[in-house]
Amino acid sequence: MKYEWRKKEKELYIPKRKPELVTIPEQYFFSIGGKGNPNEQEFAEKIGVLYSLAYAVRMMPKQGETPDGYFEYTVYPLEGVWDLTEAGRKLNTLDKEELLYTIMIRQPDFVTKEVVERAFEHVEKKKPHPFLNEAKFGTYEDGLTVQMLHVGPYDDEPQSFQLMKEFTENNNLERISLQHREIYLSDFRKVEPAKLKTVLRYKVKAIE
Questions:
Q1: Which of 3.20.80.10, 3.40.30.10, 1.10.645.10, 1.10.8.60 is the CATH number of 1-25+141-208?
Q2: 27-35 and 99-107 as β-strands: parallel, antiparallel, unpaired?
Q3: How far apart are CA 40 and CA 132, in angstroms?
Q4: Which residue in 24, 54, 66, 166 is a FRET match for 16, CA 20 to 30 A apart?
Q5: Ranges of residues in the chain whose predicted pLDDT is under 70
Q6: For residues 152 and 148, what is the distance between their CA atoms, to the nearest angstrom?
Q7: In CATH, what is the architecture of 26-138?
């Protein structure tokens, strides 16, 4: 039976439309970083590189290679960790050109360094791209976080972040940094803005 993250990991990927406190364990990701407006072509091309790598792993058995511990699964959703440059933090309004991002796609636990190397080789051969050399594989562990499901346009996210801020303050917690994570449950190319579903998260710590 195919492993479905939507069903097996609901606490991580299908939160409620109100803030909650969760602990995110260490996870494996393909990732690629950048700076600037996510509406520009470079951002879209980097997303394409990540999906090429993710599907290279997913489809390995059909290429005659089955990694140890492999199981059939649904490819995880695109995620993005967002921050601002020093100049961007000094502005009163958001300048998307000052955004810093690391976009990523989670990988199953069976993915090893050898599997990663084979994935890169497959993409380089089948679908080479100048941004491929910027992609990396590694682990991330967010730990204690506040998260909630945001439904609607990306530009309306400040409303949800305000709810998260109130939850954080009311539960004796402190946000660690301005950096936050977004998990894109909807394909913005196919879903109208009002129905977009995005998981919002940021790291917190208890106030002593």
A1: 3.20.80.10
A2: antiparallel
A3: 18
A4: 54
A5: none
A6: 13
A7: Alpha-Beta Barrel (3.20)
Task: Give the phi and the psi of residue 105 in degrees, each rounded to 5.
Answer: -135, 125
Given phi > 0 = left and psi -120 to 50 = alpha, else beta, which region is 125? alpha
Within the chain, all domains assigned CATH 3.20.80.10 are found at 1-25+141-208, 26-138
Dist CA 205 CA 10 (whole Å): 23
pLDDT digits (tens, 9 = 90+) for 98-139: 999 999 999 999 999 999 999 999 999 998 899 999 999 999
The Cα diameter of the chain in Å comes to 54
